[in-house]
Amino acid sequence: MAKAGLKGKCYVRKTSSAEWNLLDLVQDLTVEIGATEISIKNKGSAYDKYIKGLRTLPVDFPLTYDPSNDGFKMLRDAEYKDEVLEFMSLDGSLKETGAFGFQGQFLVTKFKKNEPVDGEMTADVSLRLAAGHPDPVFVEVKGGDGITEGTVEQVWPKP
């Protein structure tokens, strides 16, 4: 079943916290789950061929500029203080059983303020997986009833 991008939700928390904060100021989220490309060239073929290298999971998004918002402050401060944050992107909310997505520990590598003359202020944010922390996992929400939050369970790789 197709889902509208508007239904997707992003959450962030400090790695020492159990409580997720909804990032309600995120505009268009871009997540590229992939791998680096390693070019293989030899005289046995006239084509440049590739194998996959290291897996990548860059996360980029514009954020409505609002310094009073808790999620905004967490991202801004984490970039300034070089803090690792836990980030989760779901195709629904924490209140929806079956909402699926990924969760990992990231560094905020870019927090760029934009002030267009004829438009709203935004911040371009880039998250990159943090070295020395666990690999990201795919998760699913269980037990959400539409009102209260469910629990997030790892579905891949199998725990």
Question: What is the chain-wise order of helices and strands?
Answer: EEEEEEHEEEEE
Share of helix, binned: under 10%
Over the alpha carbons, how many angstroms does the gyration radius reach? 18 Å
How far apart the termini lie comes to: 27 Å
Beta-sheet strand percentage? over 45%
Strand elements, count = 11
Mean pLDDT comes to 94
Principal-axes shape call: globular
The helix/strand class is mainly beta
Detail the poorly predicted runs: none
The biggest beta sheet is recorded as: 9 strands, antiparallel
Query: Helix count, per DSSP?
Result: 1
Question: Explain this structure to me?
Answer:
By secondary structure, the chain is mainly beta. About 10% of the residues lie in helices and about 45% in strands. The chain has 1 helix and 11 strands; from the N terminus they run E-E-E-E-E-E-H-E-E-E-E-E. The protein has one helix at about 70-80, and strands spanning about 10-15, 20, 30, 35-40, 50-55, 60-65, 85-90, 100-115, 120-130, 135-140, 150-155. The strands form 2 sheets. Strands 1, 2, 3, 6, 7, 8, 9, 10 and 11 form a 9-stranded antiparallel beta sheet that branches. A hairpin with an 8-residue loop joins strand 4 and strand 5 (about 50-55). The radius of gyration is 18 Å and the shape is globular. The two termini are about 25 Å apart. The model has no long low-confidence stretch (mean pLDDT about 95).
